[in-house]
Amino acid sequence: MMAVACAHHILVKSEKLAQKLKEDIAKGADFGKVARKHSICPSGKKGGDLGEFRPGQMVKAFDNVVFKKEVLKVHGPVKTRFGYHLIKTIYRS
C-alpha cells in the first residue's frame, strides 16, 4: 500500500523569518493563525493545510520531512526553490 500523509506548512521568503515564526509557535502561537498571517503559499488561507498527498507529489526536501520525521512536531526551516518552509505533519499512514 502506498503511504499517504497530511501536512500543514508555512512558506516564507527568508530563513530568518521562518526561524522567528518557529520560535513564536514553540512559545504557544497557533500554527494555523501564523500560517494565515505570514505564509506566501495559497494554502496559508487554510491555515497552511495541504491536505493529503503521497510521496513524490511534493519536492524531495518536503517529502523527506513529511514521510520520515516526527509527526505533530514543527520541522524546519526547510529550504526549497519556493522559499523556507515550516512543516507540521498531521498524520501519515
Account of the protein in words:
The structure is a single chain. This protein has 93 residues and is α+β, with helices and mostly antiparallel strands. It has helices spanning 15-26, 31-38, 60-68; strands spanning 5-12, 49-53, 74-80, 83-92. It has a four-stranded antiparallel beta sheet with strand order 2-1-4-3, sandwiched between helices. Strand 3 (74-80) and strand 4 (83-92) form a beta hairpin. The N and C termini lie close together (9 Å).
Characteristics:
32% strand, 93 residues, 4-stranded antiparallel β-sheet, PPIase_PpiC, alpha+beta
Short note summarizing the structure:
The protein is built from three helices and four strands.
SSE order and pairing:
Blueprint: E1 5-12, H1 15-26, H2 31-38, E2 49-53, H3 60-68, E3 74-80, E4 83-92
Antiparallel strand pairs: 1-2, 1-4, 3-4
